[in-house]
Amino acid sequence: MVTGVQKRKLARSFKSSVWFFMGTLCLVCAGNATELKAIYMPDNILLNKRSATHLAAQIKSGEITSVQLVEACLKRIDARDSVVHAWVYLDPELALAQARAADEIVKLGAELGPLHGIPVGLKDIIDTADMPTCSGSDHFEGRRPANDATVTSLLRKAGAIIMGKTVTTEFALSGQRGTTNPHDPNRTPGGSSSGSAASVADGMVPLALGSQTGGSMLRPASYCGAYGYKATYGKISRKGVFIIARPLDHVGVYANSLEDIALIADTLMVYDAGDFDMRSHCGAKLVETLSKPATPEPLKLAFVKGPPWAEAEDHLDAVFEPYIKSLGSVVQEVELAGIFDQAVDAQGVVMDANLWHNLAEFCENHPDELMPETIERAEAGKLVSVEAYIEAQELVGSLNHAVDQLLGHHDAMITASATGEAPMGLVSTGNAIFQRMWTLMGVPTISLPLLKGPNGMPIGVQLIGRKGRDADLIQVAQKLLAMT
């Protein structure tokens, strides 16, 4: 959370900006109206609610400045984070210094990156050389990495403002750290990317990075009402990101529009030899894909339930099935059975074994610095046999082959992003079952905030595509949004 000292700094910074604005306004009133328009915009208070794509264009044109945008975001954080608790580290002065530097580059007329001047939140498992990275654990309290993670470096190269570090559960597992749902503080935002999803959904930043090993990207996106995207495994580097299960860990992105998802994802899809699992051709040209005219052919979507639907909340059918029917003939329900019945358990086997492999040292030597639920999750991996692990890993190829066969007749699969609305209470981060098999397979998935549950809480629509065919999936999402 933001400390008291940091909040006082934020207040001083905001007050200074107000006085600067008032003084400049008085001077300009004696001058010309053109200069007045450049400094005061009637919808300035809504800067933090605009899309990153639009904001980047406005910064490039000089219509707004990065400082104005960062100040708008800081104002929103100051107003809301005492309730939402999305941020574990925030230094307003550092954010504003980055913004001022970005504005100077604009004045020089230099070539700008695609995210120039845009604030981005980073999940607190992603290394930053100028900020602490603690992975949500007391064990790493005060840790200062020597280097940026690859994704952090790519964001800086693209001109982004690293706003701060967002709250994660401990080691990106289950140990909640107090973030609430921005729509209802009595409900979970999901996890483990709690703060990243909540900060974007609440308008604190236009973009944020999270991660998914089970369901930690799309579930929070669904619960909080944000767009959430998990790229194909190996398309975004994890160098400098805390690893808990190498075969499953993915870095993902949050935004408030499909165009913004494409904008930030394209920035991150750059080959990095430091992540041994990266695909040699990892770029997807998502922005270019969205800029092209949609193909005239109607969508062909496979509505899948499969084993996860058995754990859906009672209200999910009543919410989701009318939506599916409203799409008409573009949707065909397809049964997921056979080897798919084993997929969720296989993901659990792979995850558990890797958790113990990566966390055993912390659990055995520093148990007093870890949350009990973290130790419990990690120790489950001690029971995984070699035979079970090999069987689970070998299943992945068969599952991907089955998906390829299914998607030979359909453009994408469609299902819910979560079991229902965000559950009440902050102890649990909810049920990840609607993502686990897709995470195991490493296929691209995206959650679109299209539906509402019986209590008015968001429920996402999940699209699943072929491995490596991320651009196709984004195009399907674009077409689906046009129909909704």
* CATH-scheme architecture: Alpha-Beta Complex
Structural class: alpha/beta
Count, helices = 16
Order of helices and strands: HHHHEHEHEHEHEEHHEHEHHHEHEEH
Question: Looking across the biggest beta sheet, what order are the strands in?
Answer: 1-3-2-4-6-5-10-11-9-7-8
Largest sheet: 11 strands, mixed
User: Spans with pLDDT under 50 lasting ≥5 residues?
Assistant: 1-45
Task: Give a structural overview.
The chain is of the alpha/beta class. It has a single domain, classed as Alpha-Beta Complex (Amidase signature (AS) enzymes). It is built from 16 helices and eleven strands. The chain has an eleven-stranded mixed β-sheet with strand order 1-3-2-4-6-5-10-11-9-7-8, sandwiched between helices.
Features:
single chain; 484 residues; alpha/beta; Amidase signature (AS) enzymes; eleven-stranded mixed β-sheet; 16 helices; 11 strands; 42% helix; globular
